[in-house]
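Input/output pair, single chain:
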Amino acid sequence: MLILGAGWTSTFLIPLLQSSKISYAATTTTGRGDTIKFRFDPSSDDLGPYRNLPAASTVLITFPLKGTGQSKQLVERYNSTHSTPPDSNVTTPNWIQLGATTIYTNSGWNDHKSPYDKHNDRAIAEDELLSLRGTSSTVLNLAGLYDDEGRNPRKWVPRVAKTKSDVYGKQALHLIHGADVARALVAVHSHFDKVAKQRWILTDLWVYDWWGLLMGWGGKLEDGTDARQAVIECMQKDSTKALPRPTDSLGRVVSSIDFWVAVGAWPGRGRVT
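Output:
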């Protein structure tokens, strides 16, 4: 596997690749550590950076490609510098693009076959990748990424729920732990034929109710209001009898079960509490 852009995701993915005995290489813009220096520059015609990349059976793109042309350019430049002779056992790589579930904007349930915002710059680039002739590719639209440290969802509260009015507007939250992103990527690498030419939603299979999370976590909002008191008052305002609220009260909700079934894997980190 070639990881284009060894950032946060790679801190979970690389250890799993190592323990799974899957060979890999990774790039960063600076070439720090054991990575290869590479920066995708759609305005440059220089093929030198591509020639420095190794041949791979799976290429993972972790950075966003946007609009028309960038996906085609990246794939064509990599392929043109990694042509294989007829007697070679090296094949054209499979491509994975990481995206975001924010392209799904419809209220109610959304799965990987649901309508999405086709005018979104990232969605345009993802669609281009999926449509490239002779290219095997897939897109994983990720829910909110979290870990047990800097990206702990509890730390998001001061940013997203400063007042009781903010709390009242909070509905569903969808998450995926970095370790489960890694599990998903290894599963895709091993069973690419099950997911090729499609986009998929990736969550930990839970739909979280922000009110339920805030009730469990407690604490103070930025304006000094007790978080649990704010939730209780919001529940009274909406005549909500218990938490979590039913999914039909949570606005946009997404399902990823189709993905996990397709690759024969499942999330391993449980749920946020």
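The first helix runs from residue 10 to 19. The chain has a mean pLDDT of 95.
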